[in-house]
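Fold this sequence, please.
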Amino acid sequence: IVHLDRLARNYKILSNSLNDKRLMAIVKANAYGHGAIECSKTLEGQGCDSFSVFTIEEAKELRNAGLKSDILLLSKLEKESIQTAIDNDLIVNISSIDDLDSIILFLEKNGLSPRFHMKIETGMNRLGFDLSDISLAVGKLLNYKNLNCEGIYTHYATSDEGDLSYAHLQQERFEKALEIANEMGYTFKYKHISNSGGLLSELSSNTNMLRIGILLYGIYPSKDVEKKYV
C-alpha cells in the first residue's frame, strides 16, 4: 500500500529545506517500486517541476500520462533517440565528447538541439566527461550557440557514508570543472551534484539543484546519515 499523502508531505518538508534550490525528484525504476505515474502526478501537484528517470521509455510513459514537468534521462545518450527526446521535450544526458559531437551533428542536419545536461566523471566511475575534456567540450558549447545545454552535474559515490573524504574529493573535482567553464566565459543554468546522501551530509554547496530519490519515499540511504527529517 502506497500512501501518496505521505509522499506529498515528504516533498513539502524537503523542498522547504532547500533554500530556493530546485528539487529534482527521482522516479526511475517505477519510482523505486512505488508507481512512477501516480507518484509523479502527486509530486507535480505539490509543485515539483523537475523529474528524472533512467530510460527514454520511462520518460515517454510519464509524458503519455500527462506529466508536463521537466524530465532528465540518466542513461547514456542514444543517437537514435535524439529526435524522440525533442518530440517529447525530454532532457538528455551527455557524458563524452562523442555524445556532444552527436548533438552537434544533429543540430547541423536538422537545425534543432535537444535539451541536455553534461555529466562529469568525478569518481563514480560510470559515465561522465573527464576533467581533461572540459575545455574542449566548453569550447564546442561556445562555438555552437544553438546548442541547448541547460546544466552540468555529477554523482556522489559515498555521500551517505560516515567518512566523507571521498565525497569532498568529488566535490573539488566538480568545482574544478565549473571553474574551467567560468574562466572560458561559459555558465550553466543548473548545477547539481547532491543525491539524498549529499543533502543529509550537507554536500550541496555551489549548486542550485538537488536530485532527491530514496529520501522522498521516506527511506534514509544509510545508517550513517543524520535523520534530519522525521
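Residues 117 and 189 are 10 Å apart (CA to CA). The chain has a mean pLDDT of 93.
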